[in-house]
Design a protein that fits this description.
Elements (H helix, E strand, L loop, with lengths): L28 E5 L6 E5 L11 E6 L1 E3 L3 E3 L6 E9 L2 E7 L9 E4 L2 E8 L5 E5 L5 H4 L16 H4 L7 E4 L11 H5 L3 E6 L22 E5 L1 H9 L2 E5 L1 H9 L12 E5 L12 E7 L6 H10 L1 H13 L10 E4 L1
Parallel strand pairs: 1-17, 3-12, 3-14, 4-11, 14-16
Antiparallel strand pairs: 1-2, 5-6, 6-7, 7-10, 8-9, 9-10, 12-13, 13-15, 16-17
Helix pairs in contact: 6-7
Amino acid sequence: MTLLTKDFDYHLPEDLIAARPLAERSASRMMVVHRASGLIEHRTFLDFPEFLKPDDLVVLNDTKVIPARVFSEDGKIELLCLDRLSPLEWRCLVRPGRKMKVGHTLKVAGITGTVSEVFENGDRLVRWDEWLDLDTHGHLALPHYMGREDELADRDRYQTVYAREEGAIAAPTAGLHFTPEVLASIPHDFLTLHVGVGTFRPVSAEVIADHVMHSERYVVSESTAQRINAAGRVVAIGTTVTRVLESLAIPGARIPPQGQRGETDIFIHPPYQFGVVGGLLTNFHLPQSTLIMLVSAFAGKELVLEAYRKAVEERYRFFSYGDCMLLV
């Protein structure tokens, strides 16, 4: 059966999009979807530990979001700093790109940047004449659906409490619900996947199998790999963790016991046989996105779309700062 992008559409009233976080991280609602029975429960995130078994391992993504969005002094050029290639060089997404040819310069806070290369996909290599401090001069690249610019409070809230490895453009949002207290109460470990700008790119292909997935860098340590392989069930916190683990799935174990680092462009959509992940906590995703396709592969398209319909009826909060869904 050929699946189309429009098969993963659903109606979402605009007022259910969470433009700001709740006052308390762990106060979110949590829809629980039981894959085997089709039962859908309405709980809160603080109930999450109740659904864990003694031999489960919860795996989280410890990437740290950087304030990667900067603007030229004249306000005409916007850059998204995607990857630091050297102390003074960044691979950047530039808007508008037509002006930024090789040799073109711009200034950010008195620091001059020069385009030294144009990559095949349109990204630019920008070399700065001195260190560009993104913490001082940058802004968070909040998702467009929030409909607002970043604020000082987002520096804390659009970041997990366990973030430590700098390099993400966007937050691994399923992890935003955790507090240090919840984390301390559950068996857990970390991997790293730096969430890139590709997470915002829509699926333009009519047939989902024709979509070309973006690539993102990951690291899984040897000790984490061994804990994953020894666990009774692996519960992934978010689609980023799921993509890493399923990229590494091998017969006879779960993932390579020595750990791994590399890049993944895995596109998980129905039909797909999961080799590692046995439980998934995730937020509610955009219609027709690769993320709702991944969740549909895990729990079945019809059940997931029914859960989304119920989420709209029950007025759950959607997307990055919204409520969450636990699929068991």
